[in-house]
Design goal:
By secondary structure, this protein is of the alpha/beta class. 29% of the residues lie in helices and 32% in strands.
Length: 248
């Protein structure tokens, strides 16, 4: 009997990291093209902000509709909500999952809810394009910074402490945040990048990054800290990437 050679299917994994702000038409087009939505399939927009006045999901849906992509589903989860089986299946089989900007602690439900985490990671491993916006991009990293209140003082003053915690781990050996975080925490970033041999990606307003198995490309201005061959945190430089620059 002749044994048939079966070539394993190559899964093309893609992640978009997008700065919070007004949507750029080119970013929408890149999301559509990289998710092969012109060939069919659908988009799931995940919102975990629990804010009734937050209409960012509907604005994003409108952007896709303007590009003739009509199959767009918005799933807004409140902390106490249980995931329905239909929600899980919708996430696992989507062409594109967009995780909206929101409160980091609420967004961590993606990591803390094992069912939701499994659905997103399973989708990614099967070739679904994952896009994170603002803090929605931060939770995709292996680690992320989060502010914890350690003491409340009189006069509505709070003492907070930055902690580095586990993210969803879709983007390995990386921490993702925005340019404001870089502005106030440059030395801390250098220290963590050096000690952990991580890459830090700082998203500037409206910028985007596409990460594939074979590298990454900036769509707009992006801040980058890489360990390279640094012998101390002080040797790590802040780089400014421009549209079209490759890295990783």
């Amino acid at each position: 009997n002749q044994v048939e050679n079966i070539t394993p299917k190559v899964i093309d994994k893609k992640v978009f990291l997008i700065g919070n702000g007004a949507w750029q038409k080119q970013t929408i087009i890149e999301l559509i093209e990289n998710s092969k939505l012109k060939e069919g399939g659908y988009i799931v927009i995940l919102g975990l902000n629990n804010n009734k006045t937050d209409s960012s999901g509907y604005f994003l849906k409108r952007e896709f509709i303007e590009q003739n992509i009509m199959a767009v589903h918005i799933l807004n989860f409140k902390p106490e909500m249980m995931l329905k089986k239909t929600d899980i299946l919708a996430i696992e089989n989507a062409n594109l999952i967009c995780i909206l900007h929101g409160n980091k602690k609420r967004l961590l439900r993606i990591r803390e809810d094992t069912v939701l985490q499994h659905a997103v990671v399973e989708a990614y491993n099967n070739g679904t394009t994952i896009a994170g916006v603002g803090n929605g991009a931060s939770v995709l990293g292996e680690k992320l910074f989060i502010n914890y209140i350690i003491e409340n003082k009189p006069g509505d003053k709070r003492i907070t402490e930055l902690k580095l915690i586990d993210g969803l781990g879709i983007v390995k050996k990386a921490i993702i945040d925005d340019e404001d975080f870089v502005k106030y925490n440059t030395e801390l970033i250098k220290e963590i990048v050096y000690k952990r041999n991580f890459t830090f990606i700082g998203l500037i307003y409206q910028s985007a990054v596409l990460i594939k198995d074979n590298g990454a490309m900036a769509f707009g201005k992006v801040l980058l800290f890489k360990p390279k061959n640094a012998k101390s945190p002080e040797e790590i430089k802040k780089e400014l990437l421009n549209k079209g620059d490759d890295f990783l």
